[in-house]
Write a structure and sequence with these properties.
Elements lengths: L9 E5 L3 H13 L3 E5 L2 H11 L3 E5 L7 H9 L6 E5 L4 H10 L3 E4 L4 H19 L8 E4 L2 E4 L4 E4 L2 E3 L3 H12 L4 E3 H9 L8 H14 L9 E4 L3 E4 L3
Parallel strand pairs: 1-2, 1-3, 3-4, 4-5
Antiparallel strand pairs: 6-7, 7-8, 8-9, 10-12, 11-12
Helix pairs in contact: 3-4, 6-8
The structure holds calcium ion.
Length: 237
Amino acid sequence: MSSNKHGKRTILVVEDDTSISNFICSTLQTNGYTPLTASDGKQARLMLTSHGPDLILLDLGLPDLDGLEIIKWVREWSTVPIIVVSARGRESDKVTALDLGADDYITKPFGLSELVARIRTALRHADRVMGTGTGSAETIKAGDLTVDFGKRRVMVGDREVRFTAIEYKIIALLAKDIGKVLTYDFLIREIWGPYAASDNQILRVNMANIRRKLEENPAEPKYIVTELGVGYRMLEE
Ligand code: CA
């Protein structure tokens, strides 16, 4: 990787719209990252192999190829975090991108603080996976919520919440990837196996039960949110 752990992280911005690219780059600089840019797929590949950035912000609509092709290509040889920057309402693209190995997505138009938060989450997650960060946590905290993997226990404040084995598995998967969206298909495959019915009904029923037990107001969840048409995300504080 290009930067040492204590130096500035480099982020490759793959975007053909110059005004968006400039706007993202200045945000990155303000927040202590070193931006690199590529305006098409060919340049992106060149920058990736020559600079080895710490993270990729990837627009899917590129002039010479589909950004999904870049994800496929990168995942053949690298685990570098990829955040897809997508146009509004392309749920199927988001799901495909995540299934191909993208770490997250952000929808245009997005706020600067949201962008920076997503980048921090993805980098932290990559550090955990590479064992360079805080190590694999035994407990995850998000506000009042604590998930204790060792004791298989979920607390809200000092109240223990009891879940079925399936409900706990869903919570544990989301907690281990806190901040990341997990697709419906991924969760179903992890919990019920590859031959499970692929409609989301059973997952939705379980999530409704989880929220009823966990959330003060299940209609406005603050711990696990729905990413419409894509999946679920446990929110970091
Ligand atoms: Ca574009």
